[in-house]
Amino acid sequence: MQKQLVSHFKHKSLLFLAPYLAFFLVLLLIVMALFYQDNNNDCQSTDTTVTVTTNADKEAVAKSLHDNLKKISGVTEAGIAGYLANTQHESGFNSSVIQSNAPYSESQAMNPKVSGYAFGLNQWDNSRRVELINYAKSKNKPWTDASVQFDFALNHDGTNSDLLKQGLKMTNIDDATEFLRASWERGGAGTTATRQSYARSWYAKFSNGSSDTAVDIATIGTETTQNTDNTTNNSNGCATNVAQGMGTSGSPVKEIPSAYKSKIKDTNFTATSSSNTYPFGQCTWYTYNRMQALGTPVENYLGNGADWGKNAKAKGYKTDSQPHVGWAVSFSQGADGADPTYGHVAVVEAISDDKTHFLVSECNVVASGTGTVSFRELTAGQGVIFIQGKQ
Question: With respect to CATH, is domain 58-206 assigned 1.10.530.10?
Fold first, then answer.
């Protein structure tokens, strides 16, 4: 009798629980199906398990980034070109570069208040730099990993990831490039034309299968970094914030670009003057020395690089908005990568054959504070004043 009661109770219990068990089983199957679909729908998700190549061949890195971005629904060739152009200008496709070639410091890297200490492909700074490092740590990978940086940019950089995706879906090359510079990178004022030129080259390279090299990337990244003057000297200060590499289209190099070599007669860029009172290694210090050597001197106490234009004009110097060989050029804050506080100043060495570009020699751009002279090709734009020295 007892065994019959037990058997009857078990039977009743199973009948009672059966609907609930069936419901939970169906619910589990639905959840599993949704999870599987979400992780296998490349058109809807940009979460990445990508592998971005880390290679000294910068074009190979660009191609890897391009091919991974092409997998994302809605992304256009114009948007990709804009992204590649900004990445080229920021880091030269070097995922391990730190701004100004600075060494890694854990205390600086993890302090969101520290600026001018940008990391990686897209030169993340301040709190975004900290978030990149923390994300890399969560993946048990170094922050220098290009794939980690790519994933972070697309999916884990907060609202910045949304801005990146918005730029990647734009259909106009110039618009996409400028949107990503101004809204996503949020830096590089005065470098729009340079970046757009890079973008058009990358678009031509990847959008139609051309076998022609888009840009001379063999030397991009030989010193890939943004460069800034970290001086706290408020007198006669200057700085720039530009990617190094080719020496053309805004990228500084230590040698005169071949297109300009025959145009420059006086190549003694290390001449100094005993009357120079500007701080050693500053852009102001170099420009004073160079103008003296060219026989068209400027005076001391013209202020910070951004102040030279207005101060020189007030003192009676001839100024212009167009470049002239042998003239100094004053960059306002942010113009052509100049420091947002001190600006920058340089010397016009030559003008291109088509009159659309000019070459400057300058200091405190490469190896800040060491007196190293470098060269950049620029275009005349907003925020620059050209100054004729005394005859």
Answer: yes
